[in-house]
Amino acid sequence: MTESPFDLNAWLRRIGLAGPLVPTLDTLRRVITAQSAAIPFESVGVLLGRVPQLDLPSLQARLVAGGRGGYCFELNALLRAGLKALGFEVVSCIGRVIRGMEPDAAGRPATHMLLRVELPEGSFLADVGFGNLTPTAPLLIAPNIEQATPHETMRLLPVGHELTLQAHIREEWQSIYRFSPNPVDDIDYAVGNWYTATHPASLFVSNMIVARPGAEGLRCSLFNGRLTIRRAGQLVEQAMLADVAEHAATLRDRLGLALPEAELTQALAELGRRGTVGTTSPFFS
């Protein structure tokens, strides 16, 4: 089967960059910053019972032409296609979310897509799909080096044959996910995507989550109607949104997401049906 062509120019327009771009570390840094800011993390479709489609035509139609966001499998699959189109050497990897756990926490499913990009300077982690802790810069895949990003300082902690990504938040190192830099096949993403979009224990099945990194180190997130803005883990602003109109304006102006009114109304009704309006998560509040 012939792979569908990738519309590089449309993707670059969507993330606010102009070509030509060459596959260098500086370009990788610019691309990660641009896509993180332009395409929000969101899981509204999962709340409404939809399993995200990860084929390239679907990703381009939804995230590029349709102006929507997505979660890790969608956002990083789109990033992978864009980087390859620019000439980067990209390796597909997978991780285990251990947010709020010890670096070596066991029993976690492999449900987070991330990328390894090979450059003359070394191997770099590229990830635009981890909600309100998305790394907003490429990270050298080397242990125990503190690396600055436009938001948090991050590091990779060795754990056996894997590495745990940590962020320095409120004067302490907090674990995000653990991964192996070894390549995986796309079927592993298909399995992880199905689990994340359908398993009753998945955070996304019962909650409405939208997040986007902002300028000056700010991170903005919306969790079940509660808008939260933080910098380096410290609360800057928080408010409960009242109705569909306030949700629509906040999503559009603060999070870069223009949801169709019918879908937004349906999502808020689903939160009401599930009894999760206003409920919080320690990682989005």
- Beta-strand content bin: 25-35%
Number of domain units: 2
Quote the average pLDDT. 95
Give the CATH class of the largest domain.
Alpha Beta
Shape, principal axes of CA atoms: globular
What is the N-to-C order of secondary-structure elements (H for helix, E for strand)? HHEHHHEEEEEEEHEEEEHH
N→C terminal distance: 45 Å
Count of alpha/pi helices? 8
Placed side by side, the strands forming the largest sheet appear as 5-4-3-2-8-7-6
β-strand number: 12
CATH topology of the largest domain: Arylamine N-acetyltransferase fold
Give a verbal description of the structure.
The protein starts with 7 loop residues before the first helix and ends in an 11-residue tail after the last helix. Helix 4 packs across helix 5 (72-85). The protein has helices at 8-15, 25-38, 44-47, 56-65, 72-85, 186-198, 244-255, 261-274; strands at 41-42, 89-97, 110-119, 122-126, 139-140, 154-159, 162-169, 172-180, 209-213, 218-223, 226-231, 234-240. It folds into two domains: 8-186, 2-Layer Sandwich (Arylamine N-acetyltransferase fold), CATH 3.30.2140; 201-274, Arylsulfatase, C-terminal domain (2-Layer Sandwich). The protein has eight helices and twelve strands. It is globular, with a radius of gyration of 18 Å. The longest helix is centred in the N-terminal third of the chain and has 14 residues, at 25-38. The mean pLDDT is 95. It is α+β, with helices and mostly antiparallel strands. The strands form two sheets. A seven-stranded antiparallel sheet has the order 5-4-3-2-8-7-6.
